[in-house]
Amino acid sequence: MSESAGKTVTRVDLCEAVYQKVGLSRTESSAFVELVLKEITDCLERGETVKLSSFGSFMVRKKGQRIGRNPKTGTEVPISPRRVMVFKPSAILKQRINKNGAAS
Amino acid sequence: MIKSELVQCISEHNPHLYQRDVENIVNAILDEIVAALARGDRVELRGFGAFSVKHRPARSGRNPRTGAHVPVEQKSVPFFKTGKEMRERLNREDGGGSGAAT
Question: I need a labelling partner for A46 at 20 to 30 A (CA). Which of A57, A59, A68, B3 fits?
Fold first, then answer.
């Protein structure tokens, strides 16, 4: 319930986790964190979906052109067609977050 | 691509490691992200994106079939925001964004 935590986990923490659990050097652990992210990114860039069981999937969606508005001035601005990435969390991930986040 | 394919792909570039080790690396990374979110922390990966947890208050829902009121408890949901560099990479001229770069 207490919302005070608010810590931010970064690459450094992921490297530390790999270092602790797998037993590679810190340099190598850090290189692998980068490599994993790079492989996922490359895959998405090709438009492919990345499914990571018990975690979730990343997919790329194509958005058509639409008219947007500058909220400050109210002028209409065309928004070009683009590709966006979406993350769909797995049921397991959602469950894990609710177990600890709120009262179980 | 699924997790096993990701593991295989990384293993091919790193013949000095067993595939099982690579699997442990990938799992260690994912587990760390999940653990952080379960604690209510944020995970920020520059160039890739950021994971955070959003809280949804309790509300009164309806069974769409019967129309009956159903109380929905408060819950927390994982949320992902794409990073700037990732967004740009998805929309490069040669990336399938059909030449709509700015």
Answer: A68
When CB atoms are compared, the residue of A35, A53, A94 closest to B3 is A53
> Which residues neighbour A6 within 8 Å (Cβ) at sequence distance 6 or greater?
B40, B41, B42
Q: Which residue, A1, A98, A18, A87, is CA-closest to B38?
A: A98
B72 forms beta bridges with B59
d(CA B30, CA B21): 14
Best residue in A4, A39, A51 for a mutation probing chain B (most B CBs within 10 Å): A39
Tell me the three state secondary structure of residue A93: helix
Distance from CA of B50 to the nearest CA of A (A): 9
What predicted TM-score, i.e. pTM, was given to this entire model?
0.85
What are the φ and ψ backbone dihedral angles of A83, each rounded to 5 degrees?
-110, 135
Residue ranges, chain A, pLDDT below 70: 1-5, 100-104
Beta bridge partners of A56: A52, A89
Give residue A65's identity as a one-letter amino acid code.
Q
Question: Which structure tokens are listed for B82?
Answer: 């794409």
For residues B70 and B63, the answer to whether their CB atoms sit within 8 Å is: yes
| Contact at CB, B44 and A13, closer than 8 angstroms | no
What confidence tens digit (pLDDT) does each residue in B47-64 have? Answer: 999 999 999 999 999 999
All residues of chain A having their beta carbon less than 8 Å from the beta carbon of residue B34 are 55, 93, 96
- Give the three-state DSSP class for A90: coil
